[in-house]
Specification:
Immunoglobulin-like; transmembrane helix; 348 residues; MHC_I-like_Ag-recog_sf; 8 helices; five-stranded antiparallel sheet; 2 domains; glycoprotein; alpha+beta; Murine Class I Major Histocompatibility Complex, H2-DB, Chain A, domain 1; eight-stranded antiparallel sheet; 17 strands
Length: 348
């Protein structure tokens, strides 16, 4: 295992190949008075590119190159499309609530779709998934051009959408061609931002001398990062928990790794957290001090935990997005841009 981790670290520093992605997260909710009924996010390489919600009814470019390179007409088109999409999502929330025999409460319908492109191998992938209250609802399978319904309440939708073979073929065409073409344009337009490297700020946190130690890296870019613990100069994997890479609101990322260790073992051994970011040759190391000298920072730990929750809500990261990404997004008859096809939302 040690040799594998070492090789992975070398690859992280030296590899120039990148898997680029364009993703859209659409979220409609009911029962949340302080949250917009509909929110849409566009991300390129997991960095926020565009934002829309029904409180402002405006589409905003979150990178300087978006409006500069794509133009005002593009911005207005996305705005009009998303206004219509928000109405379709509102209807779908009501339909799904009826399927589950629900009449009130907080409920959320989400959709994640987009495409990926490996700039070294040329391999591409597309995906289109719908979720309800944090669980899979229905997803499109590119190979069969059919819909997968993991829950009985989605079977009606599956039969309805499977019957429209023309639209399903358009989905396949959109994600295998149009989406990839626009993804490459986005990567080129935003290369000064997307190809940059930003070193991390690394900190160690612990509530008490007997609780787990958290190594938290934040502010780094790109998102490809490896966090690890070492004991006396050797990779250490026992009693280690790995967190997910999460976005910050400034376009950078954060990640944590946790270690359970006794005060006695800390006195007898040297522990350190090692952070490696792709494209940056330097390793970032934080040595875990002797427990008698360590600062206890429960307040900061609480703040970090709260920030992670806020980021997850605002960015609209769906619970089910890490699962298998099979399927593609519906395409309209127009392929004028990367979003038109994806925003056509048929009734569930």
């Amino acid at each position: 295992m040690k040799s594998f981790i070492l090789l992975l670290g070398i690859a992280l520093h030296s590899s120039s190949a990148v898997i680029h992605s364009w993703k859209a997260f659409l979220t409609a909710s009911t029962g949340l008075s302080d949250f917009p009924e509909f929110v849409a996010l566009n991300l390129v390489d997991d960095e926020l590119m565009g934002y829309f919600d029904t409180k402002t009814n405006r589409f905003e470019g979150k990178q300087s190159w978006v409006e500069e390179k794509l133009g005002q007409q593009y911005m207005e088109r996305q705005e009009n499309i998303l206004r219509g999409t928000s109405q379709s999502f509102k209807v779908n929330v009501g339909i799904v609530m009826e399927r589950f025999n629900q009449t009130k409460g907080v409920h959320i319908v989400q959709r994640m779709y987009g495409c990926e492109w490996d700039d070294e191998t040329g391999v591409t992938e597309g995906f289109n998934q719908h979720g309800y209250d944090g669980e899979d609802f229905i997803a499109f399978d590119l190979k069969t051009t059919k819909w997968i319904a993991p829950t009985p309440q989605a079977v009606i939708t599956k039969h309805k959408w499977d019957s429209n073979t023309v639209r399903n073929e358009q989905k396949k065409n959109y994600l295998t061609q149009t989406c990839i073409e626009w993804l490459k344009k986005y990567v080129d337009y935003g290369k000064s931002t997307l190809m940059r490297t930003v070193p991390p700020l690394v900190s160690l946190f612990q509530k008490t001398s007997s609780s787990l130690v958290t190594c938290h890296a934040t502010g780094f870019y790109p998102s490809d990062v490896m966090l690890s613990w070492q004991k006396d100069g050797q990779d250490h994997h026992e009693d280690v928990e790995y967190g997910e890479t999460l976005p910050n609101d400034d376009g950078t990322f954060q990640k944590s790794i946790h270690l359970t260790v006794t005060p006695e073992d800390r006195k007898n051994s040297k522990y350190q957290c090692v952070v490696q970011v792709k494209g940056i040759k330097e390793d970032f190391i934080k040595v875990l001090p002797d427990p008698d000298a360590a600062n206890v920072v429960p307040i900061i730990v609480g703040v970090v935990a709260l920030l992670l929750v806020i980021v997850a809500v605002v960015v609209g990261v769906v619970i089910w997005k890490k699962r298998s990404k099979k399927g593609f997004v519906p395409a309209s008859t127009s392929d004028t841009d990367s979003d038109n096809s994806g925003r056509a939302v048929p009734q569930i």
